[in-house]
Every structure is written in structure tokens, then in C-alpha cells.
Amino acid sequence: MSKISKVVLAYSGGLDTSVIAKWLQQTYDCEVVTFTADIGQGGEVEPARAKAEAMGIREIFIEDLREEFVAEYVNPMFRANALYEGEYLLGTSIARPLIAKRLVEIARETGADAISHGATGKGNDQVRFELGAYALSPGIRIIAPWREWDLNSRERLLAYCERHGIAVEMKRGKGSPYSMDANLLHISYEGGVLEDPWAAPDESMWMRSVSPEAAPEEAAELELEYRNGDIAAINGAAMSPAKVLESLNRIAGAHGVGRADIVENRYVGMKSRGCYETPGGAVMLKAHRAMESITLDRELAHLKDELMPRYASLVYNGYWFSPERRALQALIDDSQRHVNGKVRVRLYKGNVIIAGRQSDDSLFDEDIATFEDDAGAYDQADAGGFIRLNALRLRIAAGKGRA
Q: How far apart, in whole angstroms, are the C-alpha atoms of residue 313 and residue 327?
């Protein structure tokens, strides 16, 4: 392998990637370019610039990708109603393909030999970053320090920081900080006391939501307007995709919505316990399904539900740029042509309650669905033949003693 002279590092400014930036300089004797994606982590962005500058890094890319993140990644995923293992809204997973894409693009722009990331050798993110990068740049060279070095604990990383004067935020007493990931869709927490699945998370850990017990006694009511499966306005005010999610996070978080404590199955084979805050995403999922409930044909809706676990696994496992995900997305996006209208939701003490839905594209026909006189819109006698035909195979089996 030829010498690596320049590496583009996915840099958050947190513990792991701050150590990596210095480690790359020392281990590979190379120039480091940092790339920090502003996808909604807010206050983490500028400290990342200052830390990179303090380590002598000259090329620093900090980019506001919030609108692209929501419009091109989050919204398409929510059109699919994606939910991994019935609980996880994929907040970390969906951010990785966008970061991988920009890493590859910046490597080309700066003439870098390789890219690098801070994902551990035990986690899913190494797979997501690298599958994304290889899909977009087949010959890219990737440095994954966690698979090379011996700094394999939080304590060793913190000791490295002390030796090299690297500042670290979020220290919790004498213990290690949580492993956290934040973006506009969610915040995740792993490590520390959370490694015991019996231990309840401390209330002070949560950053984006109040506890349901402390939420207001009055519910918040929102009217969400959908266009082609995406929320375009809240309470009559048109908003960009990122502004929609920002607003939902703020309002839903204030009402205790969006907390999850999950033990999930990682792609690499182990089980992992994590806590997640996804206030806006929790509202989006519930409201989108309500909008689809009156606008989608039955069989199309059921087909989407059958495909959803596969779609969610593709996102979770890092196959965003795969041909199968793109094909599924084409079907899903086509299904959203008539997912237009309004959904009314109430947010109350951790709950998202659907209070109404309406659409000019609605397939709900009050004249047919009514329990009152339908004036001949539906001939109930037709149901008898329908039932007998569907019972034919059951009757045959029962006649053969197979019931």
C-alpha cells in the first residue's frame, strides 16, 4: 500500500474523533482534513472547529446539511414508516449515508488518499460508513482506528486526552461520559450505567424531552399538513423540512414525547442497549400512518407494511445506497402521490394521540362506511357469497378431517 499523505476524518469534536485526529497525525504522519456535518447537533459544531484548529488542522469543513438531511434522508425513510425491530426510529442509522457521501466528495475535492471515521469495531456505524463510502467510491481507502489501536476503553481515551491536552466535555463525575450521537432526528445514549439492561437511565441524562410525569397538564394540539407523504405545514404555517422537524422536536419534547429504552440486535451480531430521544420522529410516524389510513388503497398499504421491516433493516445495516433500497424507495415514493391532507394530533404526557384526519384524496366513503341507512350504497347480502367463496378451502379441509 502506498503512503497515506492526507486523510479526511468524520469529525464530531467529541472524545473519540478528537483522539483520532491526533492519532492519525502521529501514526500515519499525514495531514488531516476534518469534516463536521451540521445535521442538527447545534452547539457541537463550533467547538469542533476550535478543537481542530488547536491540533494544527488547516482544512476544516463544517457544513450545514440540515435541510438536505431531512429532505433527502429522513423524509424518505418516514414515507416508509420505517421502524427497526418494532421500536427504533433509526436516528443514528439514517445520518450515516449522508456523512459518508460528503466524506467521499471532500476526499475528491481535497485530493485526500483516504477517509477515516470514529466508529468502533463492535458497532454498526463502521459498517454504515464504509458500505456507503464503497458504494460511492469503490476504490476508497478507509482507516478505522478502533480496529487498529489499543485505546479500547473510555478510560484509555480519556488518559490519551490528558497526555495530549485534548479537551473533553460531558464528563460525569469520575466515570466515563456516555457515548452519544445527536442530530436533528434524535439523540442516542450508550455506555456507562446503560450497559446494564436492568439499570434505569438517570433522569438527568435526557436532553431533548421532559419526563412524561413533568409534562404540562394541558395537551398541545397540532394540525399537520401533508403533501406527497411529507409534512409541509404545521398549524397552517408552511415550513421547510428541517424547520418542520425542529418545531416538532421542540413541541413534542416539551410534552414528554419520544423517549425509548431499547435492547436491539446489532448487525455485527451482539445485542446492545441504548436510550433514544426522538420527539419529532415519534409524531411523524404516528401522523403519517394516520394520513395513509384514509388515502392509501388497502393492498398497497399492506404491501408497504410487509416491505417495511426489510426497508428498516437496510437502513439499519448501512445499505442506503444499495440497489434494493433504491428500488423499494421508488415504490414507496410512488405510493405517496395521494398521501395529501391534514392530520390533527394531540400531545399529552408522552402520548401522540390522533384526533382527526381529512384529505381531498381520501378513500374513506362515509356513505358506505356508515352504520346508519346507506341508501343502497352497499348491498349487505353480497357478503354472504363472498364469505362462502373464501370459506371453500376451509370447508374442504374440514370435510377431510384436517380442521
A: 15
- Backbone dihedral region of 345: left (phi > 0), alpha (psi from -120 to 50 degrees) or beta? beta
**How much is the mean pLDDT over the chain?**
93
Q: What is the pLDDT of residues 242-277, one digit of tens each?
A: 999 999 999 999 999 999 999 999 999 999 999 999
- Categorize the per-residue pLDDT at 172 as very low, low, confident or very high, splitting at 50, 70 and 90: very low
Buried b (16+ CB within 10 A) or exposed e, 55-91: bebebbbbeebbebbbeebbbbbbbbbbbbeeebbbb
Which residues have a catalytic role annotated? 16, 96, 125, 179
Give CA–CA dist 365/168, Å, rounded. Answer: 59
How far, in Å, CA of 311 to CA of 305, rounded?
Answer: 10
Report which DSSP code applies to 197.
Answer: T
User: What distance in Å separates the CA atoms of residue 189 and residue 74, rounded to the nearest whole number?
Assistant: 20
- Locate 242 and state its grid cell: 428541517
Q: How far, in Å, CA of 26 to CA of 31, rounded?
A: 10
Contact 59/214 with Cβ under 8 angstroms? Answer: no
pLDDT (tens digit per residue) in 21-53: 999 999 999 999 999 999 998 776 878 888 899
Q: Which residues pair with 274 in a beta bridge?
A: 262
**Run of H or E including 160:** helix 154-164
| Phi, psi for 273 (deg, rounded to 5) | -100, 130
81 and 300 in contact (C-beta within 8 Å)? Answer: no
First to last CA, the chain: 67
Domains for the chain: give ranges and CATH numbers: 6-68+90-177 (3.40.50.620), 187-358 (3.90.1260.10), 369-399 (no CATH)
Alpha-carbon gap, residue 256 to 250, rounded angstroms: 10
State how far the Cα of 115 lies from the Cα of 142, in Å rounded to an integer.
5
